[in-house]
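Reminder: ligand-aware prediction takes two inputs, not one.
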Amino acid sequence: MTGKFITIEGLEGVGKSTQANNLAQWIKTKGHTIVRTREPGGTPIAEAIRDVVLDMHPEKMDPTTELLLVFAARKQHTESLIRPSLTKGAWVLSDRYTDATYAYQGGGRKLDLATISHLENLVLKGFKPDLTIWLDCDAEIGLARAKARGALDRIEVEDIGFFNQCRAAYQQRFEADPMRFIRLDANQSIEAVKADLVQALEGWYDTNS
Ligand code: T5A
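Here is what comes back for the chain with T5A:
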């Protein structure tokens, strides 16, 4: 039996880690084994690439370098962890995946979407999540939550316009493939988002398991 691949997406501070805990709990109550992971990262090689992507450097990183790095990490993550886990029947829950590349490198960095799509086909050959939870939140609110938590990484120091472009790119992804997505209003309280999440998951489970 093959497991399901679920991703959770959205801007910084929207509550992905917080709601991933609730999502993992829900998957366990359905009796499935769960593998939790994240991008960039998820395996030792991919985590090393994550450090290169997110650490501050004295040298400016070229946007296409950034794009290639996130896909290099994703290839390693997919072949080394995600696919083998699904084959064993586990459900895989990843904090971010390819939609984040369309949002950040496409929307935020303004790289050509056709180039991103070409790389996606080359690297993943049509592999994509069964379900993506998009926690949609005003960029100002998410960033304020992220900032309240502590030091910012190389991407989190971008200006508000960058994150608004990322959010618009998530909206485009949602509109292009609405059956794969569940969009939740993440401006609400943690408990209200959790209630919406569980209700939406139950509906999805009834038709997809
Ligand atoms: N990236 C990633 C790319 O550029 N391209 C790619 O292809 C990929 C895969 C990854 C970075 O890499 C970039 C995007 C990112 O910039 P990350 O660490 O994985 O970075 O992701 P972040 O979004 O930075 O993670 P955060 O931890 O900041 O955000 P979360 O997980 O969304 O938020 P969470 O749950 O940790 O909550 C943050 C704080 O807010 C509170 C929490 O208690 C916590 O204190 N909170 C709420 N407060 C009020 N109301 C709510 N509803 C709340 N939900 C959470």
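DSSP finds eight helices and five strands in the chain. The mean pLDDT is 97. We will return to this case in the review session.
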